[in-house]
Amino acid sequence: MSIVDPQFIVIRKGALSKVDDFLEDYERPIFVTDELLYAEYREIVEDFMGGEVTWLLVSEYEVGEISKALGKDIILGFGGGRSLDTAKLLARDTGLDWIAVPTAASHDGIASDVASVSHNGYRYSEKCKSPIGVIADLSIIEKAPTKLRLAGIGDIICKASSLGEWRLAHEKNDEPFDKRVYSLVKSALESVLQDESLETLVRAEIDAGRAMSIFGSSRPCSGTEHAISHAMDREQTELHGLQVAFAMPLCVYYLEEAGYSEYKAEEMHQFIVKYDMPASIDDVGISSDQFLDHVHHALDIMTRRNRYSVLQHQGVDDPGILQTMKLLDYF
Ligand SMILES: [Zn+2]
To answer: Could you tell me the distance, in angstroms and rounded to a whole number, from the CA of residue 289 to the centre of ligand 1?
Structure first.
């Protein structure tokens, strides 16, 4: 087994009640979570653990409080994006291993080795390490708000754009490529397009995260649609998965034009409409000028990261983007 693969992945209802079984080799765990989940789940988790445990809150970590991790031998990230990211960062700081215990299925970072860190309004990625295990309790995850699940679906279906662009960037601009990783992400995408179940979504998210860890960069799962979302982060507060899904059909349109898409932009746009995700300029509450500014900024991000964009490849200009957006019912 490769070192980037978790040693165990459990996805089922009631998985958390057996958390103790996965910790047999450890004596001093520390749980990382946010305030809300701490209030909701502390007693339940401690019941399952058979007594009090040490907790580190995300807010404590953010002000530099990591002394609680001294003498611990395993970290459990319990929660959504922020909690899992903090567990990853703590694992990097302390050298300890960590286990992902997601309480929502909102993004593909559950089993990845990259933490998303916010600094001066920008989000950037920090390399950490992959979890040694994933305990995904579906009875907890299904209680999370629907919007989080939609964001999770968005972060997977946007691979329709990132995968095609990755292949284009490899063939036209010599970016590194890996067929096995491509297939892994493609299967994750296909599974979610075909099956709405929560278990399928969680598995797809874990596989997408594994793919990024195996490949050593986010490129397979993150193309221009992600760069547009990062540009939108400057002023939007919409969930990551909803923003990348919003930008995806536009990128798929140009990939189709370039002959690098197995998916149809119109169908992908209809998919996000069907799921009631933000699908129009009005839904995300911005003007077309603002969106164009985000696209420009996204292209700068792509250039800075040495990533080839399909928009660059197709030589797209502002009137062209607006025309395509009209065609795809963005407004
Ligand atoms: Zn993403």
So the answer is: 24
Give the environment of ion ligand 1: residues with CB less than 5 A: 155
- 313 CA → ligand 1 middle, Å: 22
316-323 mean pLDDT = 97
Cα 131 from Cα 88, distance rounded (Å): 8
Task: For residue 60, report the distance from its CA to the centre of ligand 1, in Å.
Answer: 26
Tens-place pLDDT, residues 269-302:
999 999 999 999 999 999 999 999 999 999 999 9
146-327, what's its fold?
A: Dehydroquinate synthase-like, alpha domain (1.20.1090)
Query: Is it the case that residue 3 has pLDDT exceeding 60?
Result: no
CATH numeric code, 8-141: 3.40.50.1970
Q: 36-47 in b/e burial notation, b at 16+ Cβ within 10 A?
A: ebbeebbeebee
Reported as a pLDDT band with limits 50, 70 and 90, residue 2 is very low
